[in-house]
């Protein structure tokens, strides 16, 4: 935010009905970041940044992004650090704020690329936690926020021993996986209501 310039990502388009691009953004923490971009046919009426959940990647939301783009919106879907085609140990992170930094950086980038356009932030599951924290704690300037099944808080009475173990393990062995998340257990698609 301190007057830094935000370089355009290196993007490579595909020939489809919509302008779909795969982009490498500037490196944060010296790691490559990847995002997908869908552009509408014509100037975008608004911009959406869609944040995926734990163990996912942005490509899982291609159908949703294409639908939003066909409605006139530019849609950015990053692969968070450690997910999809972005660098980093798989779904492992030293501090959760790195996800917030990464998405906030992409929001800054979209404001430069699409000035004066409404900006919406959508988060699914863990991405909902990221989006909610950005809105609540950092007060990022957005025009709308959508949280789809956000990972907000685990009740205290659910697996109290695992909660204590997870806290200690994350400090001592951050790469240790206590819960395995398989791709088949994650929702395959979101259903969109027609935009009016």
Please describe the topology of this protein.
Elements: E1 10-14, E2 19-28, E3 31-39, E4 46-51, H1 62-70, E5 73-79, H2 97-113, E6 119-124, H3 126-136, E7 144-148, H4 160-172
Description of the molecule:
- Helices cover 26% and strands 24% of the residues.
- The protein has 196 residues and is α/β, with parallel strands linked by helices.
- Strands 1-2-3-5-4-6-7 form a seven-stranded mixed beta sheet, with helices on both faces.
- β4, α1 and β5 form a beta-alpha-beta unit.
- It starts with 9 loop residues before the first strand and ends in a 24-residue tail after the last helix.
- Overall geometry: globular
**Main pleated-sheet profile:** 7 strands, mixed
Would you tell me the overall average pLDDT? 80
The proportion of strand residues reads 15-25%
Cross-sheet strand order for the largest sheet: 1-2-3-5-4-6-7
**Number of E strands:** 7
Helix content: 25-40%
Give a quick precis of the structure.
With 196 residues, the protein is of the alpha/beta class. The protein is built from 4 helices and 7 strands. Mean pLDDT is 80; it is low at 1-9 and 184-196.
């Amino acid at each position: 935010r301190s007057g830094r310039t935000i370089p355009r990502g290196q993007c490579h388009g595909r020939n489809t009905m919509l302008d779909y691009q795969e982009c490498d953004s500037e490196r944060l923490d010296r790691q490559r970041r990847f995002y997908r971009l869908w552009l509408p046919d014509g100037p975008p009426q608004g911009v959406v940044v869609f944040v995926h959940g734990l163990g996912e990647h942005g490509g899982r939301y291609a159908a949703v992004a294409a639908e939003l783009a066909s409605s006139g919106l530019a849609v950015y879907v990053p692969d968070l650090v450690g997910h999809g085609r972005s660098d980093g140990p798989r779904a492992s992170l030293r501090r959760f704020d790195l996800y917030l930094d990464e998405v906030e950086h992409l929001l800054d980038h979209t404001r430069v690329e699409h000035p004066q356009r409404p900006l919406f932030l959508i988060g699914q599951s863990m991405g909902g936690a990221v989006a909610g924290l950005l809105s609540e704690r950092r007060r990022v300037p957005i025009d709308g926020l959508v949280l789809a099944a956000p990972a907000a808080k685990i009740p205290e009475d659910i697996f109290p021993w695992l909660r204590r173990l997870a806290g200690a393990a994350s400090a001592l062995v951050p790469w240790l996986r206590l819960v395995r998340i398989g791709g088949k257990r994650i929702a395959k698609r979101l259903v969109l209501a027609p935009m009016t």
